[in-house]
Amino acid sequence: MPEPLHALALKHRELLKFAVVGGTAFLVDNTVFYGLKLTILEPKPVTAKIIAVLVATIVSYVLNREWSFRTRGGRERRHEAALFFLVSGVGLVLSSAPLWISRYVFRLDTPDVSLVTQEIADFMSAQIIGTLIAMVFRFWALRKWVFPDEKAHSGITERYQSS
Length: 163
What we know:
With 163 residues, the chain is mainly alpha-helical. It contains six helices and no strands. It starts with a helix and ends with a helix.
């Protein structure tokens, strides 16, 4: 890799790792979402989306904890996991909201629109718009609350202990 790109990749390695984990979770999300939506949960796409996000969230926690943010943290594992799933719960609402709006506010479902239009609207709202909104929120929230920089955390603690 050329030096300027290598330096940029090193500088933003957490973001790149987070993106790889996100891509993996996106594939899990799509597989579960469409597997459910096209079979047993065909009449309930929002339920299918919620289940898919929950499965992808579990995968995401393990990969982020063990790879993306493994040099951060310092919290007790249960506390960290609880915060992760709380942040992910907000992400679940953010990722499901565009699909809910598409289906129940804009009425982009059959018989009001064609099946092709419905499927394109579902994909764009749930898998693109919802995922992007939730991804930005999660990256910010995970770095800030779930896997904070230990140096920043210990610096604050030291400041209060010396006061």
